[in-house]
Design a protein that fits this description.
The chain is mostly helical. It has one domain. Helices cover 85% and strands 0% of the residues. The chain contains four helices and no strands. Helix 1 packs antiparallel against helix 4. The radius of gyration is 15 Å and the shape is elongated.
Length: 109
Amino acid sequence: MVQAGVSLHQVAHYINQGPPGASAALTASTFAFSQIISGLIWAALARRVSVRFLLSTAAFVVAAAAIGTSASASVATGLIASASVGLGVGGPHFLTRLAWADYYGPGNI
């Protein structure tokens, strides 16, 4: 739910802050690109750390990044917040599949 709300409204949020539309759209691109990169990061972590712990960590990262997005007032801080949201959102996209496989077994997926 955080992903939908933040990604839908982040460009409008930054346009209201004053930068041109192309600069504000860069935050959405950063969010999307960091989701791809984060899949690799979460996959590497999943080999060493419990999936339950990683899911809760990803939820914390998304929550903190959503607060950071709402508090950011410039494109520079918006890019950092957008990358953080993407990092957090990329976790559940990958980790929920692992959690289902751990719980039900790989044959039921």
